[in-house]
Amino acid sequence: MIRERKPAGPMGRDEADAVGVEALSFLAGDPKLLARFLDLSGIEPMEMRARISDPAFFAGLLDFLLAHEGTLAAFSQASGRAGESVAAAREALSADFAAGPR
Fold this sequence. Notes:
Blueprint: H1 13-28, H2 31-41, H3 45-51, H4 55-66, H5 69-79, H6 83-95
């Protein structure tokens, strides 16, 4: 079941990071989907751990989910997050690019 939340304003970085972690966990649970993400992004598996603190990494991961309706629907079903919250997290992370890693 998808949790419907009514945000008071733009999503904060902490929640956006949490969505990114959930998305990474979702991909890690599906080897074919993870391989597709790695192929499309050009990221090596060993490189992922070092990139986790970079908001651009999670933004790219969320872009991957948002680019395919079926993948987004599967993530939404698994995580309980509406697609809109994935888009809001992507927006929050992209706004933080200039700030760099935390």
